[in-house]
Amino acid sequence: MRIRDLIARGEQFLSLEFFPPKDENAWPSFFQTVDRLKAVHPLFVSVTYGAGGGTQHSTLEIVRRMKRDHGLEPMAHLTCVGADEERIGAFLSELQAAGVDNVLALRGDPPHGTETFTPDNEAFAHASDLVTFIRGRCPEMGVAVAGYPEGHPECMTFREDYGYLKHKVDAGADFIMTQLFFDNRLYWNFVDLMRDMGVDKPIIPGVLPIMSLQSVKRILGFCGASIPGKFLLELEAADAEGGPKAAYEVGMRWARQQVRELLDGGAPGVHLYTLNKAEAVLDIVDSLGSVPRASA
């Protein structure tokens, strides 16, 4: 089922993101985590797609199993890295054969060890090219795109980045999923700006629970997001005084508050970046009291 139709029901929800384990020996443990998190009734789940298409086969097999064996509504990530019509067309055909009706169309990150994205094929230089191709090849497929509340780090201005995002939506995207952020004001400002530009599609905020001080710099380094000074100071103080466990509690408290405020403020739902860790997600869901649940 297309996610846009599920969102159109108007019920607030949670959705989850997973990444494929590189080693297939880790798959049994991975699917145990999936089963644990199935209990939170996510509206949908997304599965990432490695740089250079390195986990493309894994992504396909995982979304197939999620749909067939676990009763979840999966969305496969799809990037422009290494893309051509034959490869993308084949991937879409395999998704359809597996009953997977949704993709997240992304340009993708530069290959490991490089700083600049260079398209392998000029026909797939931007995420908007993917959206256009998918709409032409598989018009019934659900398509999401990514948005950056703080602006894409490669764009010189917010106006430039938001213009590209509007172009992706105009090409046929059903909804927008945001990159992670830690200050909810960034999300609300982002939504207002996109609405002023005429974008009326749902905009789903993405939240990443911070589980350790050590993870903060690594995470911020690859996505270009910022962290409020107060939050960073609290994490540093907690780690210095009580170690990783204390820092984890600070990070989880922030995530719980962030999710609650987004839902209370009227966000259509919240997409949780799980890092394949069940405990943090269950902690957040338990804190919500009235848990958003996907309707059957």
Give the SSE layout:
Elements: H1 3-7, E1 13-18, H2 27-38, E2 45-47, H3 56-70, E3 74-79, H4 85-97, E4 102-106, H5 127-137, E5 142-147, H6 158-170, E6 175-180, H7 184-196, E7 203-207, H8 213-223, H9 229-264, E8 269-273, H10 278-287
Would you mind describing this structure in some detail?
By secondary structure, the protein is an alpha/beta fold. It has one domain (3-287): TIM Barrel (Alpha-Beta Barrel). 47% of the residues lie in helices and 14% in strands. It has helices at residues 3-7, 27-38, 56-70, 85-97, 127-137, 158-170, 184-196, 213-223, 229-264, 278-287; strands at 13-18, 45-47, 74-79, 102-106, 142-147, 175-180, 203-207, 269-273. It has an eight-stranded parallel β-barrel, surrounded by four helices. Helix 2 (27-38) links the parallel strand 1 and strand 2. It is globular, with a radius of gyration of 18 Å. It starts with a helix and ends in a 9-residue tail after the last helix.
